[in-house]
Design brief:
- By secondary structure, the protein is of the alpha+beta class.
- The protein has one domain (about 20-170): Beta Barrel (Lipocalin), CATH 2.40.128.110.
- It contains two helices and ten strands; from the N terminus they run H-E-E-E-E-E-H-E-E-E-E-E.
- Strands 1, 2, 3, 4, 5, 6, 7, 8, 9 and 10 form a ten-stranded antiparallel sheet that branches.
- The radius of gyration is 20 Å and the shape is globular.
- The protein starts with a helix and ends with a strand.
- Residues about 1-20 have low confidence and may be disordered.
């Protein structure tokens, strides 16, 4: 009788620990960007993720993913074609933009993910601020395309790009 009671207690606590864990993968992403100086916005897709996200212990999570440069859309076919060419993104040589986290810091409004962004063969650190909105994580960051060899304008400040990432989570 004592062993049955022990089995029941272990089973109950096992269920609680399973439900307490909030481990997710990323099922999809919507990534938008805006070049402020040109008043041009767009999207990029072709998302692949190897992320493991534990909402109950976010600092132990891992964010890793990429998007296909070929999928850039700005609402202007000729501009998109030009951006994908050798002068800017050079899609033939650099087909993906990739990110991998190195540190996650929890804060009052969500969490901050620090990591390395690979864009056009250049790898640089970047910080993305995330909030949770239901079954999605919404991240925002700002970068300068000229830091990655994509100079749309001469002045660095005119190459500022605001990026928003909406990650849909799957258990």
């Amino acid at each position: 009788m004592k062993s049955i009671f022990t089995i029941v207690i272990v089973a109950v606590f096992s269920c609680f620990s399973i439900f307490a864990q909030e481990e997710f993968t990323v099922s999809s992403a919507k990534i938008t960007f805006k070049f402020n100086s040109k008043n041009v916005d767009g999207t990029i897709s072709g998302f692949e993720s190897q992320s493991k996200i534990d909402l109950s212990n976010i600092t132990q999570s891992k964010f890793k993913g990429s998007v296909m440069v070929e999928t850039i859309k700005t609402g202007n076919f000729l501009r998109d074609w030009h951006l994908k060419g050798n002068k800017y993104f050079n899609v033939d040589k650099h087909s993906k933009i990739a990110f991998e986290s190195t540190q996650i810091i929890e804060n009052e409004k969500g969490f901050t993910v620090k990591g390395m962004l690979t864009l056009k063969g250049t790898i640089k650190p970047i910080t993305i601020k995330f909030t949770q909105e239901q079954a999605q994580l919404v991240g925002t960051t700002t970068l300068f395309s000229s830091d990655y060899g994509i100079a749309i304008k001469e002045e660095r400040v005119d190459n500022e790009v605001k990026v928003t990432i909406v990650l849909a989570l799957n258990e």
